[in-house]
């Protein structure tokens, strides 16, 4: 069992080529976000992979993100680029590096002129601004600070798509409905799409607890602050996804190879009913959604890589590529 799967299973139980020396496009100093966030350092991983360390007022310290550069980054220094955000899940030891560690995203997109953004969400930041914790404003870090730095210093263009797995699927749909028009397409793979589904609040609180945090500091009690939970729940706000090209996938907990760990099967079967309900609500409201639900699949990276490939036409349409 990987560290990440153990984390989630427990919750259920309870200078770069083309940079010219720098990736920044600003002249006369590093760019800054409106609140003063700025890039502390850039670490070159390879010719098209750069890790950023960002001074984040929203998080009260340094935060990380990985960028995968477009194919023609070096040869088109004045161009802006379609931007794809890929979000990781909870308890992920590889954090913002997980997509490049566990999938073929780099080779799959090698021929694409797309800027790929892989931001950190910590162990269980939940892609949200915590209501009762000063330095856990993850949504502000992602959607304000990092977003502005990318547009001002890394040539991020106006065509955007977002996708995520597990907790990252929650993040992708949440950012899509909270920032209408920002993302032209969104995809969720085995996502936590309804935080108020029967049993889901216990799962949410358990995930936060296993990250060593007090879940009441995030959104408070799901009973006493049900309005706060509802405001941050994709299924409760599904109508706000109208106009966004959507893809939902979730397996039925059965492995195609027959050798999936038990926790990967259980987690997927837990996520499946809520995904079915969300898809039904979207269709009943006349909101188009592409789905792959109820087929064999488990809560694991090989399945998510397949679904990322399958969702690419939806994401590419939003990116305009």
What tags apply to this protein structure?
9 helices; trehalose O-mycolyltransferase activity; Rossmann fold; alpha/beta; 321 residues; TAT_signal; 33% helix; 19% strand
Structure at a glance:
This protein has 321 residues and is α/β, with parallel strands linked by helices. The chain contains nine helices and nine strands.
How would you characterize this protein structure?
Its EC number is 2.3.1.122, 2.3.1.20. GO terms for molecular function: diacylglycerol O-acyltransferase activity; trehalose O-mycolyltransferase activity. It holds the Pfam family Esterase. Belongs to the mycobacterial A85 antigen family. This protein is an alpha/beta fold and 321 residues long. The protein has one domain: Rossmann fold. 33% of the residues lie in helices and 19% in strands. It has helices at 3-13, 98-102, 105-108, 138-153, 167-178, 200-210, 226-231, 262-284, 301-319; strands at 38-46, 49-56, 61-68, 81-87, 115-119, 156-165, 185-189, 245-250, 290-293. α1 (3-13) crosses α6 (200-210) and α1 packs across α8 (262-284). The radius of gyration is 19 Å and the shape is globular.
């Amino acid at each position: 069992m990987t560290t990440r799967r153990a984390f989630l299973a427990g919750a259920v139980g309870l200078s770069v080529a083309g940079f010219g020396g720098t990736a920044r496009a600003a002249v006369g100093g590093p760019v800054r976000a409106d609140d003063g966030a700025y890039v502390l350092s850039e670490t070159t991983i390879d010719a098209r992979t750069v890790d950023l360390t960002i001074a984040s007022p929203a998080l009260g310290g340094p935060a990380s993100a990985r960028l995968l550069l477009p194919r023609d980054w070096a040869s088109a220094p004045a161009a802006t680029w379609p931007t794809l955000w890929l979000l990781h899940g909870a308890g992920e030891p590889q954090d913002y590096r997980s997509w490049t560690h566990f999938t073929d995203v780099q080779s799959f997109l090698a021929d694409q002129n797309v800027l790929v953004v892989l931001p950190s969400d910590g162990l269980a930041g939940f892609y949200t601004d915590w209501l009762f914790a000063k330095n856990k404003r993850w949504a502000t870090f992602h959607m304000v600070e990092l977003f502005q730095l990318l547009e001002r210093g890394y040539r991020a263009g106006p065509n955007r798509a977002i996708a995520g797995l597990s907790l990252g699927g929650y993040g992708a749909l949440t950012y899509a409905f909270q920032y209408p028009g920002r993302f032209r397409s969104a995809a969720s793979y085995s996502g936590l799409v309804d935080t108020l589904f029967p049993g889901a609040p216990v799962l949410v609180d358990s995930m936060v607890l296993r990250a060593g945090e007090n879940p009441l500091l995030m959104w408070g009690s799901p009973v006493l602050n049900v309005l706060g939970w509802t405001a941050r729940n994709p299924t409760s706000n599904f109508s706000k996804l109208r106009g966004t090209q959507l893809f939902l996938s979730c397996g039925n907990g059965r492995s195609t190879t027959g050798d999936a760990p038990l926790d990967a099967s259980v987690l997927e079967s837990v996520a499946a009913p809520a995904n079915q309900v969300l898809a039904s609500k979207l269709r009943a409201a006349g909101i188009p959604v592409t789905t792959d639900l109820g087929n064999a699949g488990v809560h694991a990276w090989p399945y998510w890589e397949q679904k990322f490939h399958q969702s690419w036409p939806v994401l590419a349409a939003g990116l305009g590529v």
